[in-house]
Write a structure and sequence with these properties.
- The chain is mainly beta.
- Helix content is 4%, strand content 38%.
- The chain has one domain (18-153): Immunoglobulin-like (Sandwich).
- It contains one helix and twelve strands.
């Protein structure tokens, strides 16, 4: 029987990149007193979660508060997330040399947030995750029901840098 594929399936699968298991996990767009950054400021924040079995470098990853501009904020390639780890990024409109500060702020009256990745094998930009939210209340986050998956829920007991479970 003649194969429909010119290459063996194993070679085709090996040529495909593995999509990283990196997710938006929790977001707070009106942080008045929940958690401060290293300088004591209460910036809005985004928590990323690595659901994969290996450490992930953030080289090639982007965050945006405008899905029409997916490469708005390149994440610092010096940042890594261990397997099962969490990372807080501060939506502070810039933080000097601190790689955890983003060049945009989150709107308390609602907006969108997207996580994108450039596949190093193909050069294609892929949307990994996204969230659209409406008006926010102070110190209430939006968190995944289960880390990295599940529905987004309003959370009156935020868990920045830790499991939502």
């Amino acid at each position: 029987m003649r194969s429909l594929y010119p290459l063996p399936l194993s070679l085709l699968l090996a040529a495909c990149s593995t999509r990283p298991a990196l997710y938006l996990n929790e977001v707070m767009a009106d942080n008045e007193a929940t958690v401060a950054d290293g300088s004591g400021e209460y910036y809005d924040w985004v928590e990323l979660y690595n659901a994969g079995p290996e450490q992930i470098s953030l080289e090639g990853f982007f965050l945006t508060d405008d899905l029409g501009r997916p490469q708005q904020q390149a994440l610092d390639p010096r940042l890594t997330l261990p397997a099962g780890g969490y990372l807080l990024l501060w939506a502070s409109q810039g933080g000097g040399d601190d790689p955890t500060h983003l060049g945009f702020a989150l709107a308390g009256d609602g907006e969108e947030l997207g996580l994108f990745w450039t596949d190093p094998d193909t050069g294609n930009l892929l949307q990994l995750d996204a969230l659209a939210f409406g008006p926010q209340e102070p110190d209430i986050s939006w968190a995944r029901g289960e880390d990295g998956t599940g529905p987004w829920l309003a959370c009156s007991a935020p868990t920045p840098g830790a499991s939502n479970g």
